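Bench notes, afternoon.
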Amino acid sequence: MLNNWLKIAFINYKKNWLSTAINLFGLTVGLTGFMLILMHWNDEESFEKWNPKKDSIYYFQSYHKKENDYGNNIAVPMAKRAKEVIPGVEDYVLFNGSGIGLKMTTKYKTFYQQEGMTATESFFNFFPFKLVSGTYKNALKGEGVIALSTVAAKNLFGTTNVAGESVKFDGKNYVVTAVYELPKENSQIKPEFIINPVEQIKNDEKNWGNFNYGCFFMLKPGTDLSVLQQKFLKDIFEYRAKLDKDSEGMTPQQYLDMYGPTDSVFTPLDEVKLHAKASWFGTPDFKTIMILFTLSVLIVVLSAINFINLKTAQASQRAKEIGVRKAIGSTRSNLIVQFLLETFVICIASYLLSLALTEILLPGFNKFFGKEMKMDDWHIYFYSFVMVIMVTVISGLIPAMYLSNFKAIETLKGNFARSKHGIWLRNGILTLQLIISSFFIIGGLIVNQQVKHMMNKDLGYSGKQILIVNFRDSNPKPWLKYERLKTEMSRIPGVAEISYGEIVPGSNRSSTSNVDFMDKSIQAQHGSMDYNYLQFMNVKLKKGRWLDPNLASDTIHNALVNEAFVKKFGWSDDQAFKNEIRPGFDSIKYNIVGIVKDFNIRSLRSKIEPVIFFHYKETDWKKMNVYNIQLKIKPDDIDGTVQRIKKYWSGSVEPGYPFDYFFIDQRFAKTFEKYQKQQTLFTILNAMVLMVALLGLFALSSLMIEQKLKDVAIKKTLGASDGILIMGLTKQFLWITLTAVLISIPISYYLMSEWLKDFAYRIDMPVWPFITSLVVLVILTFAVVSIKAYKATKVSLVKYLKYE
């Protein structure tokens, strides 16, 4: 019986070769997209799975109700007190440096080692990398010790058995206490060396307002996260409020409402990559993964719809076969199993083809996302095979039940093609397919428009030809280094102007603190800078004046602010000049002497934050944090000037260190890469959807028009013109297209409005993509269907009317 079913299946595949090819193509493309996106998602979810303690380790984030924002930092005394007073907290590890580089010297060589981090002594209790040499006991306890990865050990010593050896950097000697091997599995935490910032921790251990550290907590088994959050609020945040001298006259709740944080979030270690609210290691983006996965599933759904449509449209060709089989005793269940088998053969063939196609496309996909994925995870095969089974059941069961319901007497009487059975089903499924196609067209156009809007937006500054060079060596007085370099580098041919600014567009490096006025407080970014920095960046002055090097007060208590700062306090521009503010980074009050136009520092996805600009000498700790020099390059010989700067820097400023530089406009452009990739992916998926939908429409229209050839012959005999016949054959499909687009408009409007909400600077919802979708689908539908309709008008009248 099985052999007989397969023979019948292959006869029908051959007879309807076009629809068979379209089904194979559509399912192959859909399953390939599904597998690639599934691999991407699975790869993102696999981070930190290697860690045997992952179920006990949680990443700390804070929540600020007033700003409706999450932070990824904590203060040293908060973490310390949490371990002391909260029963569920077993241990903690703090870190405040990742991706750092140091020039290290051993008795063998000097080498600049990158990708290091600073962490407290319990680090290896949380991240038990494979130990190669030395011991983890007290490996990071106290000053003067360092742990190296096997890579760093080989770079410095040529071997990995180096525990007890000495390394020198920053003028101090460090003893290698441990050598470890980093995990080969996915991890965001892969430091090539680790040092404990003992002195820094000691200076910050009583500073409750210095949120300079990331933190992982190790929780005891059975700890209730909701209870932990409540205790953190009461025993940590409210405790801090009572200690702060600024809390006089306030209740702890009033203090938290003003200064925050107001709540905490604890994310499991292996969920940080995708599901953390805020992360030290990069912005989580689970939403994009889900959008891509949903779109890939929709393509598979479209392919399944094609299958259903084509199978039901072919019903008339199988009617007599079914009638005969029923007449000789075949049961309805036997027929359903037979038709499901025919569907499964197509699906399994598509599955095998999609595996091959995925393997071919994977290198390009890896390059696009910067990954190294391989098809060696059984989950990929399992879930894609489950998808094949689901497609088989869904796309096979509907036509199978429809076909198996034919009555033997009815089908054996005559021409089943004239029956109206199945039309409602085909039309309904075709409408669903076109709804999905319309959504992809609308969504693709809106995504393109939003990305174009961001690319063309006036950023409020000009970073053109501005080169930034970051300091590498640890100068004890970095502001003096900057001032010396400013004088010396201005003599380099091609350098037009020099300045310094703490806030660099496109860079994540920034610090914030509260700024108070009377009973109100806001969070503002710090903008320590040289006198000319804002003019250097071509930022526009809205009102007031710039900082003046001839006024001593401009290095004591005067500042500029941006428009967002003034707006956040609810002032008018004139009121801002009359009010004295007290920033959290200083103990004195500041006067506002100028207001500048807002300009974008971060991605255009984020709103412009309040910023206070002040000279770097106004506070001792800000001049100690001067970390770059910025040079405006003359346009006539940019490459030559960069080479001269590099030669000077590597020879006279930081010999042995890499020349760490970038152009501001190029760095800020990187903030668009994510959205440009989304745009590219949406365009590719859009093309795939339209291709699958149009091929399915062509095959379906071909089958349906073939069923009407006798009607066409009769009408032609009665004198109908080709144009009338073509319109008669296509108008049904045009009405379906029109209905589908009208249904898709509110759905697309809602979904794309939700997507646009993620952008602080977004387009108003345009009307033209909805109109374009209607026009494009109507034209394509007419073009696809009219080709077959035109051929139908050329039928042989004798062939179809000789028996009438």
